[in-house]
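Hey, can you fold this one?
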Amino acid sequence: MQSRDPVFIGGMFKSGTSLLRAMLGRHSRLFAGLETQWLAEDARTTPAERREWLERLAIFFDAPYAALDGAVGDATQAEPCLDRLMSFLSQREGKARWAEKTPYNVGAIDRILSYWPGAKVLHVMRDPRDVYASMVEIGKWEEPAVFGAHWCNTVGAARDWLGTAQGRHSAYHELRYERLVLDPEATMRDALAFLGEAWEPEVARFDGRPQDFERVQHATGKVSPMLKRLAQPLTDGRVGVWGSVLGEERWQPVQAELSRRGYDGIVAELIAETDAIAAGAERSRDAGLAEPKS
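Sure. Predicted structure:
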C-alpha cells in the first residue's frame, strides 16, 4: 500500500527548495504548493492574525478563504492546522499525499516526526559559496555572522540532528541542488524512491511556474528574485555563480565564520561534492559529443 504520510522539504534559503517543491508537485500523487510558514503558526494567537495567515494562503493556493477556514476548523496548534489545511488542499487537487516546503523544516525534524511519525524529510543542499553569492545579489544577510546564523539553523541543525541518529535515518534524505539541475532525472528518481513513489518522467521536466510568482507578488506585494527564476525553465546557469559574484576574497570571511561555528568539515564536504558533480556532468557531456552520429 502506498504511503499517505506527508513530505517536508527544507534547506538553507537560496538552495533550491522551491525548485524541488515545484518539480515534486508534478507527480500525480503529490500535492506541493507554496510554503505555508507553518512553523510560525504558534505565534498567531489572535483571530486577526489567523485570518491574515489564511487570507494569504487563500491567494497562494487559489482557494476560497472560507474553505480554508472551514478546513482548519477549531485547530489552534501549528501541527493540526497544517495537517488539516494540506489534507484539504491535496484532496481538492485529487492528490493522495502532500508536501510542504519551508526552509526551516530541516531544523525541526524532531518536531515533525513527533506529530507525523511516518513523515519524510527532503533536505536540499547547495554549495555554500553559491548560496552566499545569491544572498549578496539580493542584498540580504550579507554580514558573515548573520548568514552564518541562518546557515547553521538549517544545514547545521539538520546535520547535527543526523549526527544523533548515527548519520542515517529512514525519514531523512539529502539531495544536492547541483545534481538536481545537472542531472534532474537521476536526482528525482532517487527522491521518489526514498518517498516510495513510482517514477513519473514529468517530475524531471520543469518549464517554469509563472503562476507561483504572480500569486506571491499579489499576496505580499513583493517581487522575489527566487520566484522570478522559478517562473523560468530549469537551468544549470546558477552553478558556480559565486566566482563572478564574490571571488575568493569576499567568501573567506564567511568560510571563517562557519568554521568558527564548527562547520568547516561540512563546508569542505559540500565544496568537494560540487566539484565532483560538475566534473561528472562535464564528462557526460563530452561522452555525448563523442558519440557517432547515426
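The first helix runs from residue 17 to 24. Let me know if you want another pass with a different chain boundary.
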